[in-house]
Amino acid sequence: MEGKTFEPVLSFHFEARADRLKGVREKMLECATRCGCSEALARDIVIAVDEACQNIVRHAYAGQGGPAVLECRLVGGDLEILLSDSAPAVDPATIKPRDLDDIRPGGLGVHFIRTVMDTVEFQPSPTGVGNLLRMTKKVR
Amino acid sequence: MQHEVTERSGAFVVALHGDVDLDTSPSARKILLECVGKRRPVLADLSGVTYIDSSGVASLVESLQSARKGGSTFALAAVSEAAMRVLQLARLDKVFTIYGSVDDGLARDG
After folding, report:
1. pTM here?
2. Which residues are paired to B52 by β-bridges?
3. Which of A60, A66, A111, B49 has the highest CB neighbour number within 10 Å of its CB?
């Protein structure tokens, strides 16, 4: 999407802790709705973003908390969601969805993210510190 | 999240209310597994669930597996739209026994 104009629609700084995720979900739902998403689509996007935030809480910061930023912008008809943290770099190869035929607790979050969003990719952090997850979803 | 446990027709009905997420799912898991551990049918009433994430779903899966291992049953009832969407995403809507209402579940499972 380089070269395309984009419209910032959300920049939300939060502490990556389990008890802060409800607030992140509320922000994301309000943002997706404002961007013209149907209620069903907005709620799906909230699921994906919540699961991505959980990965930061559980894996990047290992439950110890730390700063994170949720940024959203409209690029053409796509909602682009950038989720960044300042934790030690996580190897993207270790973040994989599991086989759904294997019925067991856990491991569903990555599957939710990849099912809901059109694109999901880790990008180099512009600051050289932390992790940056970029996700997009066609909303218009 | 809040929960309420009632005994009806020889079964435990565990009603969960609110968001079952990374912050609250440990409580949901604890109460569900406690009930399942008593080896009586357990019906999880999800009508009041406004949001459930992968950790909440994991608690349900763990309860189902624990019930099966103990020779009992674990089923869901009155699943809210929000919870059903997540079960569908996880393709678990065909794995759990899901009743339209608690009364229906008790009539067939309790």
Report:
1. 0.94
2. B20
3. B49
